[in-house]
Design goal:
The structure is a single chain. Helix 5 packs across helix 6, helix 5 crosses helix 8 and helix 7 runs antiparallel to helix 8. This protein has one domain: Globin-like (Orthogonal Bundle). The protein contains eight helices and no strands. Helix content is 76%, strand content 0%.
Length: 134
């Protein structure tokens, strides 16, 4: 993304685009996340990671849209919640997911600041709270 377009985005969305543009971002996230718990690693044993990485990118965007109050985003996050319940994702795994995400953002957003980390954490927590309450 060029700088003039990035200037038009909120700091959080600009960070998302910088991370998305770094091919290593999603790999770093999964390395961190799978290392958080043997139970999490076990859930991904038979995963097609090419597909999973695309799903993560889509899910992040859905969560960001929900945080921004975009029409239809709540319904998408609720679908995400239903998929995770079907897979047996436990509530405590969401905290590990969020920590892994924020650690990956810190590593791959060249303009990362603690304030950007807080924006990510707050935006994702809003979606996580909806998922856990449904």
């Amino acid at each position: 993304m060029n700088e003039s377009n990035e200037d038009e985005l909120t700091p959080l969305m600009a960070s998302y685009h910088r991370c998305r543009d770094d091919d290593r971002f999603v790999d770093t996230f999964y390395e961190l996340f799978l290392g958080k718990s043997p139970a999490i690693a076990q859930m991904f044993v038979h995963t097609d990671f090419k597909h999973q990485k695309l799903m993560l990118r889509e899910s992040l965007l859905e969560m960001l849209c929900y945080d921004n109050g975009m029409a239809g985003a709540e319904a998408e996050v609720l679908k995400l919640s239903a998929r995770h319940k079907t897979l047996g994702v436990k509530p405590e795994m969401f905290a590990m997911w969020l920590d892994s995400l924020c650690e990956a953002v810190e590593k791959h957003d060249p303009q990362y600041t603690p304030a950007i980390g807080t924006l990510w954490r707050n935006a994702m927590q809003k979606g996580i709270d909806l998922m856990l309450s449904s």
